[in-house]
Amino acid sequence: MSDNHWPRAIVFVDMDAFFASIEQLDEPSLRQRPVAVTNGMRGTCIITCSYEARARGIYTGMRIKEAQQLCPQLIQRPARPQRYAQLATRMSDALRDEISPDLEIFSVDEAFLDVSHCQKLLGSPQSIAAQTKAVVNRAVNLPCTVGVSGDKTSAKFIAKEHKPSGIGVLPPGQVRQRLREVPVTKLCGIAEGIGRFLAARGVYTCGDMERLPIGIMGKRFGYPGRRIWLMCQGLDPDPVHTSIAAPKSMGHGKVMPPDTIDSNIIHMYLLHMSEKLATRLRRYKLQAKTFSIGLLTRQGWLGDTYRTATSTTDGAVISSLTRQMMDEHWRGEGVLQVHITALDPYPADGQLEMFVEEHEGRDAVNKTVDTINQRYGELALGPARLLKRSDMPNVISPAWKPKGPRQTI
Ligand SMILES: [Mg+2]
Hints:
By secondary structure, the protein is of the alpha+beta class. The protein contains 15 helices and 13 strands.
């Protein structure tokens, strides 16, 4: 095993002064200035504050009156929870899409990603940590700190050591040594009560824990006790708890050169969207059998809903439905946009249909294509006709409805 491949690799992302950073992002005059966020303008306690405020001794939980005495230039801003949630969602969507679908939202501004299986695609854990930071930056343009290690607790620990705006890397083989002198209560999830229990048994640092039999912790605290014992050795067994509900639908659309009437070009766009949708289904380990396929013309949407015999994640299968749609509904109208939506995506795991023999060859091909495209960019490999595809932007049309407004024509 090379030094750069870890048996388990967990990334922890922690936004720096998240709410205050958003206030500074949205209102440039607040940048580089001490900002405190409170619950409304009448909130008495500081929910969070910018690093400029922290440098002046202000901290989360401090009373605003006290903070204003300490720092008269302090700017108070009321919290805007909806805006914070919007950016948190944008950030987690980007991380799922570009780093790993195995993502756990730990709090509004913290997330764990299991990237153990991404090392072939994305490179070393060090590099994945840097890519994670870049993805957050591109998605929300806010500062964050990233930690990477072999388990959740160690990743969180090393991130905290590199705040703000840093990248902490702690290879699994070095965790035990690194934590040896660290007080056990510094690890996330070890409360004061447990700290007192341990202190009474002579355990103050993570290194001390090795002398305490794991059974004592297990007997007193159950699984959490055993977990803490392991956490101190850099062996936190807790998995990244992904909690993505299958989306109700998943779609891709694209704007075309206005009033396109060349059927070859329309077919090429539909093929591109079919491949994009199929890639996305596979990426989220979903499959679907009902697809809504539409063309926007100056008269409105043309199209219909089509079903495959068995669930699919194959762009070629979806594309054959788009041909059927064209044959049935398109009569030479100029087309402005194309759109394909999977209406019933559901988890592919454990579904018998995935193992139908005729699909196996295609599945292997698709897996290889995904691997290459994730490394070299979308559709580096794909159906030959797509090599000529346009660079028009992808769109999700607000007018598009699953049934299609065709009835209104
Ligand atoms: Mg934070």
